[in-house]
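re the bet — no i am not wrong, look at it urself. input seq straight from the record:
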Amino acid sequence: MAASSVQQQQNVALAARLVCPSSSSSAPSTSSLSFCSSFVNPCLRSRRTVFPLRSCSHGRRTATLIARAALPEAIFFDCDGVLVDTERDGHRVSFNETFKEKGLDVVWDVDLYGELLKIGGGKERITAYFNKVGWPTAAPSAEQARKDFVASLHKRKTALFMELIEKKLLPLRPGVARLIGEALSEGVKIAVCSTSNELAVSAIVTGMLEQDAAQSITVFAGDIVPKKKPDPAIYVLAANSYAVDPKRCVVIEDSAIGLAAAKGAGMNCIITKSGYTAEENFEGADAVFDCIGDPPNINFDLAFCSKLIDYVAHQTVASS
């Protein structure tokens, strides 16, 4: 069976358990509960966990019980590939333009850049690439001087990337603005946690979101932590800064290294696959989707995030 079909069935089963957690045998079939429509169920939108009426063995029906799912304490978004699908036509293009401007005979094609994305951080990717293929003659030989050389390349790349953002050539992914708006309206804390340059991430947040939303979001990015994803440091920092319980947080990521960082911080993680990460192994993710989604194709919302936290907590207790 294709991986996408398996994931679709897993998402449908998860949605069924969130709607009907009291009975594993009452999960709707894929013929009656579609992949997308399962996440726009009115029960999920209202954050109610519904224990439906069922016939008992002696013919009586049980009562319908409704419990309100608690809101997440915070939702943390990755930036590249989650807020905006920036990698192929944003960062990669800006890297190549920088190399060209500096007279370097370097071109990162789509496939090569996909491999480099397995390394967290732009400066780290440049360094790893030159360590593997050899440093250009224009680069100094001393270690600190090389770090400065890489930093200068990355600074110029960031400036070129920000020009793309300011021109709004890279739109927000479907559902991002909607979910952020839902969360902020309910008092849920929002942050963007990224290994990318802080200026570039802040430019996306302030340039692509409504002003009120952008002003309510904290950006944790770049070298704010000593170790980058898959190390969980940036998510630990965000949780500590907001004084929230990691188990009551939801992380939206698009990559395996981001998933590892979220799980390492003890948080729930939803994957929204991006162009470069669609075929990665997301084992351990709490849910996987193509995107968050906007009407009429909403994949999940704030209510789903609330119920997901409660479901994962229940499963953790049940297995302990």
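see?? The chain has three domains: 3-68, 74-84+171-319, 87-166. told u. also The chain is about 45% helix and 10% strand. so pay up
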